[in-house]
Amino acid sequence: MPKFVDAVKGFGVTLGSMFKRPITEGYPEKPGPVAPRYHGRHQLNRYPDGLEKCIGCELCAWACPADAIYVEGASNTETQRYSPGERYGRVYQINYLRCIGCGLCIEACPTRALTMTNIYELADDNRGDLIYGKDKLLAPLQPGMQAPPHAMAPGTTDDDYYLGRVTPSQEVPR
What positions does the entry give for [4Fe-4S] cluster 1 binding (predicted)? Predict the structure, then answer.
């Protein structure tokens, strides 16, 4: 008799869930909400005038335990300036086949050039498309920004950029 009671209890769970309304998610057409602090795809940020924040120091690549980041720095010149200071990241790649999303690269960046966005759809059917270069990682130009290469804002120094004293109109607030 106890085996029969156990079987009825098991069927009770099944019967109880049979008459509940199913929960259907329309994921591809209607993606659900994402937590505001979710760490998804990386983004290389810019200063308000359009210059890149990445200085090509390679600290993010050294901090990455999965060896998913490749950075090749180069020197800025007065005619070809991509970031304030002496250097910029000429080549910047993140291999999302290797990336484990730990965020150690974010912590290692001294200029806050690298952050993580809420974008979580990184699946693809081609392995080569999951190696993101600067063309996919750089933040888009906002209104008032000028595409690099261009000179630093008139009358500014590297410190003005790092301390946030440069505005989109390339004027230094006094």
Answer: 54, 57, 60, 109
